[in-house]
Specification:
The complex is a heterodimer.
Chain A (H helix, E strand, L loop, with lengths): L2 E4 L3 E3 L5 E8 L8 E6 L5 E8 L4 E4 L8 E5 L4 E6 L8 E8 L8 E4 L3 E5 L2
Chain B lengths: L3 E4 L2 E4 L5 E7 L4 E2 L4 E2 L1 E6 L6 E5 L3 E2 L7 E6 L2 E6 L8 E7 L12 E5 L1
Parallel strand pairs in B: 2-12
Antiparallel strand pairs in B: 1-3, 3-10, 4-5, 6-7, 6-11, 7-8, 9-10, 11-12
The chains are: A mainly beta, B mainly beta.
Chain lengths: 121, 114
């Protein structure tokens, strides 16, 4: 079964760092782009960025460039999203998802279950 | 960046009736070289991650009921649920994945039962 399994919920204080994970299984992890999507409480979906685990090519939305870092360790089929200094406004659900393959990454066909990040003093 | 808009923000439809959601992109998402529209539709139910319904604007994802259909080209697209079922209550999002990221989502349309 193709699946993405994300790490568990996190509760952090402002200024702390955080790295959440997304582990792929059931397919060739290095052959598909993995994207990250933010959903703030009660709000819509925001596309943050993508990484191609095969060569670690990474692209960011301008809205998130410099705010987060996307990485991957292909040896353990895991992608990461990290923050160096969290803010209260980072409180959200974060999803990873696999993009359909192609010359341009396609629709997001497999989704993780989501990781809730709560930042509060 | 390409900006996506959706209309209406929400709609209520009787069971068995048709639901129509519109999505508009600020620039064309049609690639002339392959004649494909780089547009996807997703369904998100409360407490669940989104689910891909449609890609290439009109290709149904495997396992998606055929009451869901996508149409349109260029900048104007439509998701139609031909006969609304109770399990279709959800928020629906369009997304463009044309060329260079970001691959922006629309704001979403909430579908309820009337």
């Amino acid at each position: 079964e193709v699946q993405l399994v994300q790490s568990g919920a996190e509760v952090k204080k402002p200024g702390e760092s955080l790295k959440i994970s997304c582990k792929g299984s059931g397919y060739s992890f290095t052959s598909y782009w993995i994207g990250w999507v933010r959903q703030m409480p009660g709000k819509g979906l925001e596309w943050m960025g993508i990484i191609y685990p095969g060569d670690s090519d990474t692209r960011y939305s301008p809205s998130f460039q410099g705010q987060v870092t996307i990485s991957a360790d292909k040896s353990i089929s895991t992608a990461y999203l990290q923050w160096s200094s969290l803010k209260a406004s980072d409180t959200a659900m974060y999803y990873c998802a696999r993009h359909k393959p192609g010359l341009v990454p396609g629709g997001m066909d497999v989704w993780g279950q989501g990781t809730t990040v709560t930042v509060s003093s | 960046d390409i900006v996506m808009t959706q209309s209406p923000d929400s709609l209520a439809v009787s069971l068995g009736e048709r639901a129509t959601i519109n999505c508009k992109s600020s620039q064309s998402v049609l690639y002339s070289s392959n004649n494909k529209n780089y547009l996807a539709w997703y369904q998100q139910k409360p407490g669940q991650p989104p689910k891909l319904l449609i890609y290439w604007a009109s290709t149904r994802e495997s396992g998606v009921p055929d009451r869901f259909s996508g149409s349109g080209s260029g900048t104007d697209f439509t998701l139609t649920i031909s006969s609304l079922q109770a399990e279709d209550v959800a928020v629906y999002y369009c997304q463009q994945y044309y060329s260079t990221p970001p691959f922006t989502f629309g704001p979403g349309t909430k579908v309820d039962i009337k």
